[in-house]
Structures are given as C-alpha cells and as structure tokens.
Amino acid sequence: MTQLSWLHRTVILAxxxxxxxxxxxxxxxxxxxxLAxxKGLAVLGVVVLLQAGQVSFGHAMFVAIGAYSxxxxxxxxxxxxxxxxxxxxxxxxxxxxxxxxxxxxRYRYIFFGMLNLAFxxxxxxxxxxxxxxxxxxxxxxxxxxxxxxxxxDRATFEGILFYxxLAxxxxxxxxxxxxxQSPLGQALSAVKSNETRLEYxxxxxxxxxxxxxxxxxxxxxxxxxxxxxxxxxxxxxxxxWVRSGELVFIAILGGASNVTGAFAGALVxxxxxxxxAAFAANIWQMILGGVLLLIVLFAPGGLIALYGxxxxxLFARTRTEP
Amino acid sequence: xxxxxRVEDVHIRFGGVVAADGVYLDLEPGxxxxxxGPNGAGKTTFLNICTGYLKPxxxxxxxxxxxxxxxxxxxxxxxxxxxAFQIPQLFLEHSxxxxxxxxxxxxxxxxxxFRAMVALPERAEMIGLLRQLGVADTAEQxxxxxxxxxxxxxxxxxxxxxxxxxxxxDEPTSGVSSSEKFQIMDALVQALKxxxxxSVFVEHDMEMVSRYAHRVAVWNGGRVxxxxxPADVLADAxxxxxxxxx
Lengths: 322, 246
Known about the structure:
Radius of gyration of chain B: 18 Å
Number of helices of chain B: 9
CATH topology of the domain at 1-71 and 199-246 in chain B: Rossmann fold
Strand content of chain B: 15-25%
Strand order of the largest sheet of chain B: 6-7-8-3-9-10
Strand order of the largest sheet of chain A: 1-2
Order of helices and strands of chain A: HHHHHHEHHHHEHHHH
Largest interface: A-B, 25 and 35 residues
Oligomer: heterodimer
Distance between the termini of chain B: 37 Å
CATH superfamily of the domain at 1-71 and 199-246 in chain B: P-loop containing nucleotide triphosphate hydrolases
C-alpha cells in the first residue's frame, strides 16, 4: 500500500513537472494550462461536495463571486496587488459560501442541486441587470495587479500567474487530500451513507456539510479570481448554469473520488475542448459529450480510476511472475 | 440514590395509535433493564423519545436530573446516552474500523482537518472493543459486504465507542444466530460492566431476559404494565398470557 502511494506521489510530481516545463517548450500552452488548473481548483470544490453525495448545479456562482469581487477590489485600488486581489476574492467567496451554505445544507440531493442552481441564477441576473455597477453582459475589464508593489508587463505577469496557479493546485490539492482523510472529511462521506448514525454519534450532519460547502466555495472563488486575471475580463457568463454543469462534468470525467481526478479532468477537458474547437468547430460539444459518455459507460470511476486499475493490474502481474 | 434516567408521564400518539399513554419509569445507575411487551406496545417509541428522535406531546424526560425532553439526538448523545438500533445504522461505504474511528473522533471532538483519521490515538481502543464483541477479524472489511449478524454487533460497538453512561439497545441479538446469542450477550454484558454503563434493552426472548436483566418492565398499550425482577414478572399470570404467550 505504501509502495503504491509512493508511486502515486511520484506520478503526480512527474506530471506537475511536465506541466511546469510545457510553457517553455510551447509558449502558447501557458494560458491554456493556467485556465485548466484554475478550473481544476473549482472542480476540486465540487469534488469535496461529491464526497457527501451532493451535486451542486450552481457552483459557478462562486467562480463568478471570486472573479467579480477581485475585479471590483482591483479597480477600487487602481490595480491592487496580486496577493490582495487573490485574498479578497477568496474571502468574499467564503463569506457568500457561509451565508448561502446555511440555507442549502438543510437540503439533500435534487433539492440541494436545484437550490444551488436557483441561487446561481439570481446572482447571474443581478450581474446582468445592475449594468452601471457590473457592466452588464459586456462585463468588466480586469486591471492587471502589481506583485508586492512592482508593476509587471503582460508576459511576466502571465508567467508568474501560471507558476503560482500550479503551486496553488499542488499545495491546495494536498491540503484537501489531508482534509478528506481526516475525521471531518470522512464524516462528509458518512453524510452520504447514514445521517441517522452520524446524528446518534453526536455529530450534526449540517455542520459537517457546511464546512465542506465553505471549503468548496473558497476553492471555486480562488479558481474564479485566477480565471478573471488570465482572461482580463469578467462577464456574468462565468456564473451561468452551463458553467456549473461543466464543473460537475469535469469532476465525473476526472473521477469524483479523488483530488487528483479534479486536475486530471480539467486538463483533459481543456485540451480536448481547445483541439475539438479548433479542428471541429461545429461539433466540439458533441465530441466532449461522446468522451463523457464513454467514461460513464466504461470507466464510471473517471480517468483516475482508469489509471488506478491499470497500476493495480501491473502490480498484480509483476507479483505473480516467478 | 437518585435515578440516572427519570421518565415522567410521557404521552405521544400517531393518528389513532397511542404509542405512549402516560409512561413513568426510573432507571437506577448501573442496572440493566429489559423491556418486553407485544408488538405495537410502544417499546421502540420509548427509546425514540428518550433519545430525542421523537418529541412527546406531554411529559418530561430527565437525565441525571436535567430535563432533556425535545432536545435533538446529537445533544442527548453528547450528554451520555448512546443507542444501538434494531436495524443496524452504519456507514456502509466505510470499513468496520473506519466506522469505529468516526465514532471515536465524534467522542473526542477530533475535528482537526489535517490529521488523518487512521492516526487517531483511539485506534487500539476501538480494535479492543471490536475484539470484545468478537468481530475484530472484520475490522478492515467494508460494512456493506458483511452479514446482518455482524452488522448488528458493529452497531453495538459504535454505541459503546462513545463511552456512554446509558446505552439503549433495541433487540441487540435479533438477526444473530441463536447458537451465538448467549456468547454475544455475555461479551456485551461484560463490556457494559467494565465501562460501568447502565443499559436498557428491548427483547423478545424470555430466556435472554431472565438471564441478563436485573429488572424487567412490561409494556402494554403505551403504558408500563408492570416492573419487577425477572422472576416476579415472568411468573405473573397477566404477563404470561399477554406477552410470553403461554
């Protein structure tokens, strides 16, 4: 078992290293990879809730909350500093996650999913209608922040943002993994299997779920801030329900049982989407749909389970050989 | 000595069914009380009221002198009342040991999100509990693959993991093969004694009742018909006719 976990760690680090050197070999890949990793952070938030068996169809709202609040903050400060903007976006998402979470953790399954969707649609229409503040459907331009007071040109900023996002993905991925292995994270999957027993152990399922919800809001918010900074523009479309569905889509594609799955799913999704859009502009959604169909039918555990199964097979084979 | 649990004039009804119609009962610390009675007499309802699952329309439940009537189950559990269920309530996707460790974390409030559950210091204690109940060999197995009898024991072990002062058991050995029944109850009674746990158990098997209970309460039509030693109660003509069925 420890042998396997060492293997997993090595594979993850090797992949991260591969991602890290990609932009030096193919400069065009940098923006794509930054977006994919940022989306992976948001998907990680959805994965946390999936541990409790709860699917949110509104989590793109936290992506939008993160992106818009960071943009407002940046514009108020005349650009602001990267660290301030990131923290501001995440803290605002946490605050919204706490308030919305208090309502939605009272519900489960379809009601949980739909209530999240409802909240996200309210936010979406507010962003569209309060034109004089939010710029309506045209959105707002994001000012490029400084880093510790130093102003950066576009290329340097994008480079820094890429490596920062990669570091955050690794660091937060590890922390979320630890959280899911802790009793608090295990209680999250206990919410899925037996709330009665949880209550009779003296634990409030709602509190357990609320912690998970706030964590997921923070991750989506962080992803949103980064997406806004990379695109240089935030629009209400960031929080549209199709975007929420996309987060769930990627979580299932990558494998919902696992932290690594979120990032693997996001990377594959972005790459497939980019290539499919470039080479088959009219049917790229169909290609993505086909990929998901194959995954659901033949690898319900997602990409990460495909990897896990093949490693297990390999181990079994080497062990049976004389 | 003041009673550990005092139930005063508790009433509840479900539509036309009167499940508790003025229930009075005192539990002495350290005793083991069996509840017997025909189906529908309100035995499980009584457990549901004591643990906060149901709120009585009238009456009070006092635990160590404090009114706990209508508090939610989790608050009552934290005061020291644990429960084992007639149908085992377990975390099906976890291993047996993980079930126990979640209970241990709940007891010690070990909610540090960066400390792995497998590293909890209560691990050995939890394995010890499983061993006492004779199910330690299933520790690493997922619960959803286990037979009902084993699940039943794990359910009891989960309740014991909370180190309660009062344990309410709803037919602890139903679903367990009759050849193992006494062996399991011996182990359970020993575990209760070791931890100085007061216990209440609903039971249909009169042999179990006479062997393990200090006192017996007979339920009938939502009321306590009689309370006494097993010998007295089982010798009573009404009880023999209505409950034992001889």
